[in-house]
Amino acid sequence: MHSADPDGNINISWSANPESFQEGYIVSYHEVESSNGDSNTITSNKTNITLDTLLPGRNYSIAVRAVSKKVESNDSSIFVITRPSAPIIEDSRPFIDGLNISWKSDVNSRQDKYEIQLVRNDTLEKIFKTTYESRIILTNLYPGAGYTVRVYAISHGLKSDPHEYFQ
Predict the structure, then answer these.
(1) Strand partners, 79
(2) Phi (first) and psi of residue 146, to 5 degrees
(3) Which entry of 41, 123, 127, 148 is 20 to 30 Å from 17 by CA?
């Protein structure tokens, strides 16, 4: 079983086999889509662990093996996806009927694409756009209107927290 806490840490728990004796456990993880990606091995004598060093926006394979008298069991494994880090809006330049917005992402975070949401403050009209670039030009906006702009990073179908501002 696994869960993510609000800080993005992954909590994993498992049950000991009641028909066997275990002195401890070996937990190993590695990034699935990269041959030289993030990986580590941890030993524990508990049946749960918090992984707080997993990088954001990644797909991990996590395996647990029981150990007794230096002999390891077969793996029991799961896949876990971590949420990407929120992008940071660097620049927003208005023009007659639109906005030119650019942002940057944490270098440790991976993302497949970005989602931009605009909400017009007086009518609550919503506009959704996606892009693979770290910038977008939005046109056909109502001149003189105020918009709440949110930019999300998306990785493996999971959205980051938004970076939000009013323009």
Answers:
(1) 61
(2) -100, 140
(3) 41
